Amino acid sequence: MRRTAAARIRYALLDVDGVCVMGQRAIPQSAAALARLRALVRGHRLITNQSQEPCSSVMQKLQRWHFDVRPGEVFSALSAAKSHVAIRKLRPLCLLTKAAMEEFEDVAMERPNAVVIGTAPAEMHYKRLTEAMRVLMDEDSELIAVNKGRYFKENGEFQLMAGPFVAALEYATGKSARVVGKPSPDFFRAVAHDAAGPDVLPEQVVMIGDDVRDDIQGAMDVGMRAILVKTGKYRPGDEEICTPAPLAVVDCLADAVTYLEESGVVTE
């Protein structure tokens, strides 16, 4: 995608976990901020590296917390994984939660030639990881990581995501995982195309996120602009990690939308 200095922001991507919600509660003012954002840009997507539940469940959860979310507006790493499996005609061994497996109900899994791994605490034990390793010992097999995040925050505590377990399988087998979720460039391009069509310019898209690596750096690496919010997994000093600096660093989603409203960077 080409870049242009004159490009105004027309589309927005915003992370669900850590920007809109935290654990089992909505972040204050975030539902109202989403409504303001909807009126401000031409299109938006709520994105998630969530690999524990399907997009429909994410949408319903947000709706229960009074977010105006409509079908097709949630884009997940889990659905990106299924799309990759279908395109490659793979038969995966899935290390996923029971809820997430709903996305794969129509996928053949006999004689697996791939491993799909997401955040699934009950699956991350010696027996299942060894089973996955054996599948991956075949030269033609593929390791597909729904995400490669390190950790997330829930109920005030940091929890491991899939990344450390993906790294273990990579180390054991010598294979490199194909990451289909954030911060994969393919993920950001796919969600931008989903929101705006294939002709969208990267600078026309802003990513609002709390994860400096997976959200902010990942988006900026494909030419998008980004706003870092100090909710969710943000830690003091995160803004110093990414290059170049994000468009803005603000306290929360509501402040991010205010910045977009007042800065003049959004198209009319």
Automatic annotation (TrEMBL):
What UniProt keywords are attached to this protein's entry?
Hydrolase, Magnesium, Metal-binding
Stored Pfam families: Hydrolase_6 (PF13344), Hydrolase_like (PF13242)
Q: Which GO terms describe its cellular component?
A: cytoplasm
Q: Key word Metal-binding present in the record?
A: yes
Quote the InterPro entries the UniProt record gives: HAD-like_sf, HAD-SF_hydro_IIA, HAD_sf, LHPP/HDHD2
Q: What's this protein's family per the entry?
A: Belongs to the HAD-like hydrolase superfamily.
- What name goes with this protein? Haloacid dehalogenase-like hydrolase domain-containing protein 2
Organism the protein comes from: Cladocopium goreaui
